[in-house]
Amino acid sequence: MTARLPLALVTGANRGLGLEVCRQLRDRGYRVILTARDPERGREAARDLGVEFLPLDVGDSASVARLVAELRRLDPEGLDVVVANAGVALDGFDAQVAATTVDTNYFGVLRVVEGVLPLLRQDARLVLVSSGVGQRDLLSADLRARLDLDTLTRDELSAFMQQFVDDVQAGRHREAGWPGTAYGTSKIGVTALAHLLARDLAGDPRHLDIVAVCPGWVRTAMGGPNAERTVEVGAASILGGLEAPRDDPHRFYRDGAHASW
Ligand SMILES: NC(=O)c1ccc[n+]([C@@H]2O[C@H](COP(=O)([O-])OP(=O)(O)OC[C@H]3O[C@@H](n4cnc5c(N)ncnc54)[C@H](OP(=O)(O)O)[C@@H]3O)[C@@H](O)[C@H]2O)c1
């Protein structure tokens, strides 16, 4: 009987950073599940890497539920690493952009995390791909004060993110203290979520770890051709989150070191 390989799942992995994270995890000896919302492109990417594929649209709760059921069947022992990487950076700024961006980048991460939480094994690690673009000082002082990481609940954070979308839709986001960036706001939410989850899961007997990471500015479809970093360097920065010390209350890393937000 062959030894069980540690199991890793990566979202939004048919291209860009997610694909390279799968490659690096494979090279580190993980059994890798590459997921993507487009089954054809996902399957092809997985075949090229020699890893496994499962479909996942992080915008669709039913898709997350199907993935979880499939994972239980695939390896009843559960997951060792989850990299919540799927994200969008859309052009322009209007109600639709705000809604889609927050739904994919913030609620998409939350859906995946809540779905996989029961499947996590002892010492499992969750890495949420955020961005240094998501700086809290983009928010008004009043909004920043509501992001109290010691007391804020997950539901309150979700209501906070939804408030941004509602305020953009109502044409009052400026007066309400929000920035004119859906992407930046969504990533503030992702980094805050990592802090809240780390706090809430501190007493979990499985000794779980959760961290948000920034890959830096990377030459992908999202980052564009003028970005500073190769996809290899960006993916290594994401996987630097796997080495973040578990007892450190700071939960946002770039290149394996604290990043500010
Ligand atoms: N590139 C940078 O400079 C940079 C900097 C900071 C943070 N990041 C973050 O790094 C992550 C990866 O970015 P990237 O540069 O690799 O971007 P990318 O090349 O545009 O890839 C994004 C990936 O997310 C997937 N995706 C989008 N919506 C999805 C959904 N609803 N369900 C499942 N998958 C979905 C895309 O799938 P499709 O192919 O189907 O669209 C694609 O595979 C993102 O979270 C991004 O915000 C990137």
TrEMBL record:
Query: Which chain regions cross the lipid bilayer?
Result: none
User: This protein's superkingdom?
Assistant: Bacteria
- The question of whether Oxidoreductase is a record keyword is answered with yes
Pfam families, per database record: adh_short
**Which UniProt keywords are listed?**
NADP, Oxidoreductase
- Tell me if DNA damage is a UniProt keyword of this record: no
The record's similarity note reads: Belongs to the short-chain dehydrogenases/reductases (SDR) family.
Name it: SDR family NAD(P)-dependent oxidoreductase
Query: Which species is the source of this protein?
Result: Nannocystis bainbridge
